[in-house]
Amino acid sequence: xxxxxxxxxxxxxxxxxxxxxxxxxxxxxxxxxxxxxxxxxxxxxxxxxxxxxxxxxxxxxxxxxxxxxxxxxxxxxxxxxxxxxxxxxxxxxxxxxxxxxxxxxxxxxxxxxxxxxxxxxxxxxxxxxxxxxxxxxxxxxxxxxxxxxxxxxxxxxxxxxxxxxxxxxxxxxxxxxxxxxxxxxxxxxxxxxxxxxxxxxxxxxxxxxxxxxxxxxxxxxxxxxxxxxxxxxxxxxxxxxxxxxxxxxxxxxxxxxxxxxxxxxxxx
Length: 268
Description:
Elements: H1 3-18, E1 21-24, H2 29-42, E2 46-52, H3 58-71, E3 74-79, H4 86-90, H5 95-113, E4 117-119, H6 132-139, H7 145-148, H8 153-162, H9 188-203, E5 209-214, E6 217-222, H10 227-232, H11 234-243, E7 248-251, H12 263-266
Parallel strand pairs: 1-2, 1-4, 2-3, 6-7
Antiparallel strand pairs: 5-6
């Protein structure tokens, strides 16, 4: 038996032991794999819930709808109120704590009505970064079965591919607020500008990207293998990003780095 097969069996045992579950479903590789695995083990006792707020791009919402329909998993949309919380809008280093608190407040009633446990698609590799949202979720009673079974991000992708999940190679994603530097207020207008700019870049075929919001400046991050594509479409990108509300359009030559805004926390 391979190491991956051992982890898969451990995950299945953990899911069976937990019983009815509600998977917090963003449509990314981790939550998609967890939802599909829970569906396989628990059948109708596994459902997926997606938090709907201005920090979720509309394309991500549509993606979640398509996936759950394709897989036959019951899917529930639930509105979260993080934007109504001053501590979240203030956008300090604990922003994600307040976001996950809002998520748990919205999802817990659904889980309680089904005598179910809330699950998050956190993997082992996620444990090393600054992720206060994990603490908020754990305090709310959520479980992280991928961690319990020892799954890394690479494990998730390999297991997803074996299961035939289209999400196996999906680029890492995160809420739109993660594009806003700490200390800059999170507003609906800011999130809308980021969403429109990123949608324009994806329409050009770019896959792994972020548009970091720095006031009237957009700092574009893409995978190093896509830098040439950005240069080739420079004029189109400038027009599109300016139409999203930015005055200056810049390209980060270091390329995409997940969570790179967290470096500001380490530098203080």
